[in-house]
Design brief:
By secondary structure, the protein is mostly helical. The chain is built from 17 helices and two strands. The protein is 64% helix and 2% strand.
Length: 475
């Protein structure tokens, strides 16, 4: 029986894939549309969204734990200026690890293998901190040796986090816009949670001695380790859902193992079926190969993908460069007679809470904050305008002892606004940038976006060293 239909429409839990039976389509996967659906029916989709939220926080929890331990590290290693140099170490190691993932690992290892590798390194780096400090306290390790070990721990965090962050952004890019937003919210939630955890821990050990600060820091680290273990579990669960496999199959990506395709039709959902099983072809047609054979991965030019996203890449880099130039070094420099040693914690918490608010805004029902309301050129102008925070926050710290903008109120207000603006622009850009590319290029697009993010962070952290010396010179 002759049938004119040439298209097999596949309806997943939240996406629609179209596989067109034509010779040209065997050479391109641009006909596949991974839509950013607004609703995600089914437990698998909800689990996947929650998994991106948790794992987005997970790969930043170790580094945020080190940064939020600034009070303890400054007491222990004061002459080494850890609040400035540890972020720099993190950026200088993370950028090459992202490049390694983009150039080598993404083509040789499955998504889940790279995620597992990242979690293994992150858990090691968290466990490394209390062990190192126990050795320093007992006298088995010198202060210089302890600081060198802390630097190694931060470097390990950077390596694991870089591979995992770029992998997850590629994964989310293939899954859809809302999953990228979930990952961005998770990143901000990591900072906010660590800060709040530090506040609670410090309040529980309220004395301001070295011992009290040490207790609060170690409690934060142990909670962070427990959270990371939960992220390992949720990442395994979400990867094994049929929803995730269907999404990856639609995007033409290798999901690892032998799950290159998905299976037969279920009772209530139209599943992805092979063309050989679909009654749409004439009886005289030769037996077609399965869908997964038609959907072979397309060779992707990373340069072409980057060029398509050039404006978004500028916005990503500029957003994070401005942020790291000021956070955490500059914003933790001002002192307060009222807040005492709570001042650095209050400033870090103010920024992290603001960043979280900014990243949640695109998911609200307020039309003005929806990602599609903002053009790429508008976002580029907005992130450039954030440079105004640089002189303003420097004036809250310089001259040392007698700053131009006096009082903790200025610091907390400006860091909050910087966090909200940076969080919002980063979330919108990271969520919408992959849409400049067809579905087959979105995993690569996500990895390239992470590289732009890391370049911005590295530039910002490097410039922060110069700003630190400038502020110190005003004393």
């Amino acid at each position: 029986m002759e049938v004119d239909a040439k298209v097999v429409n596949v309806v997943g839990a939240s996406s629609t894939c179209s596989v067109v039976d034509s010779e040209n389509d065997s050479q391109s996967s641009e006909n596949v549309d991974i839509s950013a659906a607004e609703e995600y029916p089914g437990e698998g989709s909800r689990l996947a969204w929650g998994g991106f939220l948790m794992c987005g926080a997970g790969y930043l929890v170790p580094f945020n734990s080190y940064i939020s331990a600034a009070n303890f590290l400054e007491q222990r290693y004061e002459k080494y200026r850890p609040e400035f140099y540890l972020p720099l170490v993190y950026m200088y190691v993370t950028a090459p690890s992202v490049a390694l993932n983009m150039v080598t690992l993404v083509d040789k290892f499955s998504i889940i293998s790279r995620i597992r590798f990242g979690f293994a390194l992150l858990l090691f780096s968290l466990a490394f901190f209390p062990i190192t400090e126990a050795l320093v306290t007992s006298g088995h390790l010198s202060r210089a040796g302890g600081y060198a070990a802390i630097v190694i721990g931060v470097g390990t965090t950077a390596l694991g986090g870089g591979v995992q962050q770029s992998t997850l952004f590629g994964y989310a890019g293939a899954m859809g816009q809302s999953f990228s937003l979930a990952q961005m919210i998770g990143e901000s939630a990591a900072g906010a949670a660590v800060s709040i955890n530090l506040v609670i821990s410090k309040a529980a050990y309220s004395d301001e001695s070295v011992k009290g600060v040490e207790h609060s820091t170690f409690t934060s680290m142990y909670i962070a380790i427990a959270y990371m273990v939960s992220c390992v579990i949720i990442s395994e669960m979400m990867y094994r859902t049929e929803f995730s496999r269907r999404k990856l199959a639609c995007a033409g990506k290798r999901s690892g193992g032998d799950h290159g395709g998905v299976h037969a039709q279920s009772e209530e959902e139209l599943e992805l079926v092979t063309l050989s099983e679909a009654p749409l072809l004439s009886s005289t047609s030769p037996p077609p190969s399965p869908v997964r054979e038609l959907r072979k991965p397309v060779e992707v030019s990373k340069k072409k993908v980057a060029w398509k996203m050039r404006t978004s890449l500028y916005s990503i880099g500029m957003t994070f460069a401005v942020t790291l130039l000021l956070f955490p070094g500059v914003i933790t420099t001002p002192t307060s007679s009222q807040l005492g040693d709570w001042m650095p914690i209050a400033a870090i918490t103010s920024f992290n809470v603001g960043d979280l608010i900014g990243k949640v805004l695109p998911l609200t029902s307020i039309p003005r904050f929806q990602p599609q309301q903002f053009s790429r050129s508008w976002l580029a102008k907005a992130v450039t305008a954030r440079c105004v925070f640089i002189p303003l926050l420097i004036m809250t710290a310089a001259p040392l002892g007698n700053p131009v903008l006096k009082g903790a109120g200025w610091v907390l207000l400006l860091t909050l606004l910087m966090g909200v603006s940076g969080g919002f622009t980063a979330a919108v850009v990271m969520a919408t940038a992959p849409e400049a590319c067809p579905a087959s290029e979105r995993e690569v697009a996500g990895t390239i976006m992470t590289m732009a993010l890391l370049v911005g962070l590295t530039v910002g952290a490097t410039l922060a060293i110069g700003v630190s010396y400038m502020i110190t010179a005003t004393e």
